[in-house]
């Protein structure tokens, strides 16, 4: 702050009164108001000193200094609008962060329940429906069975493919692959290493294979030991990926809110860097440091 021999207690009191009038009824935190008053007082004194050094009398310099900042009522309204905008914007981001975490965790736990509870029911009902049609139809490759399989795949997000094949005693004892009867989608590659059967038991790309085997129990077949395999390829919900997305979105939104808060409070920008890498831990350290600084004043 620039010193000047012309400034005295009377001038300083008028400046303080002007600042108090300006900050009166400003809807901001006590610390924010104090920071504003200190900065405003410093600016007014600096402006008064500059004018006094230019040759103006104390009264003229003071009058010109106040006139530079305009009407106090107008300034107060502008300040209130500024502080309210900052608070509202910060609150919106904080609420959005909390809602995002809540919705994200709800989806995460719902997906776990879906994989563990609902998925098995879908598989069980699909097996039941397909097996009933196979037992009822005289022709295992009838359009009725094919249409039913298509309907099951198209109506269930979880089921991505269905394969129906059969095996007999000769094929079983001679290690011959199952004979395919029908699969949907019809262009499904059953021999390629990235195809249907190679997913069995591995859960690659969140795909699982469930197979159910049953006997035909029909006298019109020449092989009494003929049995059928119905395999369902299931798309599991990727809970790990979902959780990762939730964490990333939360991390970014919390960082935006906390960095705005630190910026509005005119704190050291290194706190923002700390929060960027440590998130809520960094902000907790900043909050603790800020409160400790208050008590030490």
Brief descriptors of the model:
single chain, 297 residues, Beta-Lactamase, 9 helices
Brief rundown of the structure:
This protein has 297 residues and is an alpha+beta fold. The protein contains nine helices and four strands, in the order H-H-H-H-H-E-H-E-E-E-H-H-H.
**Mean pLDDT reading:** 77
Distance between the termini: 21 Å
Give a quick account of the main beta sheet: strands, pairing sense, barrel closure.
4 strands, antiparallel
Low-confidence stretches: 1-5, 192-203, 218-225
Helix share bin: 55-70%
Shape: rod-shaped
Tell me what you see in this structure:
The chain is an alpha+beta fold. It has three domains: about 10-70; about 90-105 and about 240-295, no CATH class; about 115-235, 2-Layer Sandwich (Beta-Lactamase), CATH 3.30.450. Helices cover about 65% and strands about 10% of the residues. It contains nine helices and four strands. The radius of gyration is 38 Å and the shape is rod-shaped.
Secondary structure layout:
Layout: H1 9-23, H2 30-53, H3 58-69, H4 72-136, H5 143-155, E1 159-167, H6 169-173, E2 179-184, E3 207-215, E4 227-235, H7 239-264, H8 270-278, H9 280-296
Helix pairs in contact: 1-2, 1-4, 2-3, 4-5, 4-7, 7-8, 8-9
